[in-house]
Give the backbone structure.
Amino acid sequence: MDARRIRAVNVVPLIGQLRHYSARWVRADAMAAFVAAVTSLPQALAYGALAGLPPTTGLYTALGAATVFALFTATRFVVVGPSSALALLTFAVVREQAGGDDERAVALASALALLMGVCCLLAAVLPLQGAAEFLSMPVMLGYLAGVGIGMLAGQVGPLLGIATPGSDPLLKLWHVLTHLEQVRPLTALMGLGALAALVVLRRCLPRLPAGLVVCLLAIAISAAAGLTGRGVAVIGPAVGGLPELALPRVSLADLWAMLLPAAGMALIASVETVSAVRHGGTGGISLDRETTALGAASLAAGLLSGFAPMASTSSTMSVRGAGAHSQLFQLITAGIVVFVLFTGGPLVALLPMAVLAAIIMVGAPKLIDVTGLLRLWRGWRAESVIALVAVAGVLGLGVLRGLLIAVILSASQLIGRAARPHDTLLAIVDDDRPPQEITDGASPHPDILIYRVDAPLFFANAGRIRQRVLALVTALEPRPRCVILDAEAVFYVDATAADTMAQLTADLDALGCRIALARVRGPVLAVLRANPYHDGATRRLPVFPGVREAFTAMRES
């Protein structure tokens, strides 16, 4: 392969996937595309409504995201498109800024997708991937559970035909419960009937595309019964064909106001993309490249008047199980979306909004991992509290603020644990056994204390460790003549810790006690040897490869 072709494959990996493509795989990819389409089309419409936008924006999102991600991803099965989580985030961010103007809401949602795409591209270029590691499992459990509960609470009103003001899902639910007299019978009948049909079909006929079947039945009933003229809210006139490819008309002030939410959405979308890549069995894939592909997909969705997309682990597993061989399946899916946009406008316009609410409500429980939360509560109470805080934060303060509070709490817990690290005294029992931890009783050699700390030394724990060592030394009479610091687990020393270690060396020297180092890592030793604090007190510390060697040398000195 010449250099030009290699560059083309590097830029568009799909070219490489198709180089050795077999004709018999077309049928498998087409079937996988059909499986993806019959599931995603109703969801795309529902998530467009969930985002507070015209439902067809969900189709625009699916079209742009699927096409561009298929071209730039190095994976074969990962699916990217509209998601409930980012739709809800879009609604939370856009609703207040739009001020009830539907056209402005679409423009703001598209701009938010563009900003998220830029954030993903920056995260791939700059060393920002580590930020996703602060979204721990408890945080994600709580966040997703909060989103799921919020989705359920927020869709009760549309399901029953009760208008619900505001954006807080719990307040919406409370409004419904206190205004049940406003229930629209026909709307409630369609919504509850669709909800029951979805539950029964998914339980009894799991291989049947329940969402698509229910939508088609609802459209048929709507047309036959003339529900539009009988007070049942429907999607309404849907624009046929493709949307115009253009930048949204928003101000710099609008972009500035959405920058932080866009960064948060990029973080969440990146985490889900990593999950989809791993569950898709695509090992060895560069996560930076996949974040780039996700960013490009979000840019495409924004330019097509859609909202921010995200990878879907469940959809990825479905298309892989359906036998997909390449990202060609996602291009075929995009083609099906185009076909629906050109031919399905009049039909889609008759679909009752209550049916979309039912589709959202059926999908919401998947986000609430009750088993995972209970398992967390039984084994890790502190982490379960973080998960519950995330749930409460998402419901009470909004998705982004709630997630931010949970991340801060999780990071605070991590710092708190590092500030109180595990430490212990060791003893040399005999020549054949390694140093033993002293769990009770006195050291067999009180003249030499062997102290081990299992943590990096930094500003939050250095002072505590210094006080601990001094307390151990001054508690003995006569005082030890040497302290051996087993530094095997110390992989980092910051400036505060370097200062504190120099101070500890000076303090012990004043007490007539020397300090020696054992099993010091190279970078840590380099810091201590260059340490300028307290006249370079740590520069002259004796260093030994092992604890036993340090003990023998100190005893003989």
Summary: Residues 252-279 form the longest helix (28 residues). Confidence is low (pLDDT under 50) at residues 3-10. The radius of gyration is 30 Å.
